[in-house]
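Figure 2 data, in text form.
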Amino acid sequence: MYNPKITEPKWQKFWEEHNTFRTLSPTEAGSKSKKYVLSMFPYPSGEGLHVGHAKIYTATDAYARYCKTRGYNVLHPTGWDAFGLPAENYAIKTGTHPAVTTAKNVANYTRQMKSIGLSYDWGREINTTDVDYMKQTQWIFLQLFERGLAYEQDLPINYCPSCKTGLANEEVVGDNICDRCGTRVERRKIRQWVLKITEYAERLLADIDTLDWPESIKEMQRNWIGKSEGVEFSMKKVGDEAKELAVYTTRIDTVYGMTYVVLAADHKDVNNWITPEQKEKCEKYIADSKAKSDLERTNEGKEKTGEFTGSYVINPFNGEQIPVWIGDYVLGSYGTGAVMAVPAHDERDFEFWKKHKDRGLKIKRTNYSVSSSFPSPDGVIPTINGSNFEQYISSWDSLPQFLLEDGSSGFSPNFEYYLVNSGEFTDQLLSNEVRTKLAEKAESEGFGKKKTNYKLRDWLFSRQRYWGEPIPLIHLETEDMKKLPHISSISEAADTNLAYILKRDEVAGECVKGALCHGKVRELVIGGKVVSKIYDGLYGKIVCDYELPLELPEVANYELAGDGNSPLALVPSFVNVELASNLSGKRETNTMPQWAGSCWYYLRFMDPRFPDAPASKEMIEYWGQVDTYVGGAEHAVLHLLYARFWHKVLFDIGVVSFTEPFQDLIGVGLILGPDGGKMSKSRGNVINPDDVIKEYGADALRMYELFLSDFRDAAPWDTDAIVGVRRFLERSQAIFEIPRFASDDMKAMKLLHKTIKKVGEDIEAFKFNTAISALMILLNEGLPKDEENQLEWKETFAILLHPFAPHLAEELWNMIGKTTSVFNASWPEYHEFMLVDDEVTIAIQVNGKLRGTHVFLNGVSQEEVALRVMEDTEITKWTEGLTIVREIFIPNKLYGIVAK
């Protein structure tokens, strides 16, 4: 009798005692191909797992188990993304060290995962807070710093007053809300560390096409990177031609229709464009705009506010005077922080114009005309040449829109644009060639050039919190820089092993960029010439601390310092440091964000105890890319983008030999609460897997999670429906104990071979629900009576069941006399000839409508089908009084009659 409360703990103990899930070394694996299967590792929260988490882990487990039976050497590990705000906030509230809370939560997660029967190699377990792991994270950061990819800057940032830390744009959601705590985000200027992800924008964009990811997630990354090709040109200020304003546009073809220019409120030079008459209004507007987040300012549905600066510029293409406005829908961080506004051809500009037209903002004419060959129907006025502009809601860059005389509108894709009102380009067909000529005009006359821009911004990396990796940098006082010794040659620098030297073409063929010498080298000299100095702005006052790991100190409390600094700033023994050459410095007190540890964790699983690098070269080469990576789409422009960036840096410095970390990404649909809403503690609709296991067993939980819907689709939890899955498991064990026979042995064995094929293909496609359905159909058919066939059926059924219900599969495997684990069994082979049915059901149609079905022997001829159909009065009644003019026959599937 099926009793999971006894069998499941028994097999979990067996797996642990026999180390069943240990990954083979390359030597042990021999000729086996590798398969790296990974789900996004969890943050161990105090609430523990809910069934939504369990769906992801169960799916990867089913797939990993299947791959093992197919002969792969499978790496299927897990660990803990354990730095983060919840543990620190709990520490602030209770005084409990975050490490204590984290360890407790990890123990609970581990217990839950083992109770579900997940086949993780626990010998490879990692934790981002472990000292050995943190050492490698800090080492990677130093590689970024030394290559100029990490820099310090005072920035207006998204700041959460509740979390008391800065947030990247990706961490601000909805209506300017912190994605962690739901608090409204403010804008504050704070010293920050920033990673230059923009240096890799083009590579990140180009390599998206090499990935086997859902197209929706690839498109999200493309849009976030936001590459655009355009022209940057400058316009002189009216009354002060020495002052210029640069704008960037992707629509240079509309430049003759420029109506006004909009500066971002945070444009670096905005105050110099405000006249005394407009000063009070503009300064208030700027202050209000800077209090808003970038997301809030650029929201498509937001009202387009603005203020006139009082200044004008000259459009260099036609000499017209253009008013300069300030608008919060323009960002200082994108392009030049100023845009030319053409309301005739841009939706946002049009909305801005509508809002401010009563304040004297005049619209310019269009730059487009429809081809004279365009077959305009009567009563249609091309809007771009018409007078009804205020009614114009354009499709802008897709289809042209025309207003009918009655005010309605319509679209037509079949037309060509010609430029009008465009100076020397008037009457030219709009094309890339014309756009190129416009760009060349700007370049030849010295006021512009072609340029590529990206929406992607550099990654705000530091956090003003305690519970994160310390940043291993030391700030030196300016006076202390004078104490740094000189090194007279590159060879001497190399001999002292104090300098890190990057090469580039410079100074008499010598290739030297600079020296980063742990605070011990100030400049390099060749033949009496100073080749490179440590830069004041970046390298001059900041040196690397290679005494890794740099561990977190104990603190009296976890509250932020009164000036907004991290709690680390209040620990003198941590902050103050003595260096060589009688130097003294102060440690960086910001910490890394939670994303740091998750940017490279997939490498650590390959060789989790290697002391000298993220993993050994041998293991990185053997395991290579993650073959199958499973997780939610919410990480598309966060973890997935950050990890790709770090990986490319590691590729450039020779740590890895492949350019992308995750080859195949599988998205997961949410398991919603029973009320159809997203599971959350605040809603009170969270389902704890512990409760389900206690009531129904772990195998029932696993199978229900995967049977509920297509893995990629969301579906609400229905506890009542799990009863059906539990009954299937009970019947599965029962048929091994008391055989229930099929009506026909051959039919049962053919169905068995079809099921082997179906389940294998469905698991590979992550279509677990249809695979489980096929197993249910197989069970319903029953056992063959022949003893040899019966044993084959039982062995096969246990192996097919094993990815979904491993505890019961082990029990069934044991019941038929097997002494090894089913985990190590081989996936059964199906025979093609067993997939062919002896009988087929053919649909009968009359004039396209189904009128019946008949069962025939496989391969029946058209004549035999027609003869039987003509004897069936339930079908022939539909042809009475008609003449059969044609017959349609699709072998083994359909016979159709066309009658008139």
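Caption note: Confidence is low (pLDDT under 50) at residues 368-415, 484-540.
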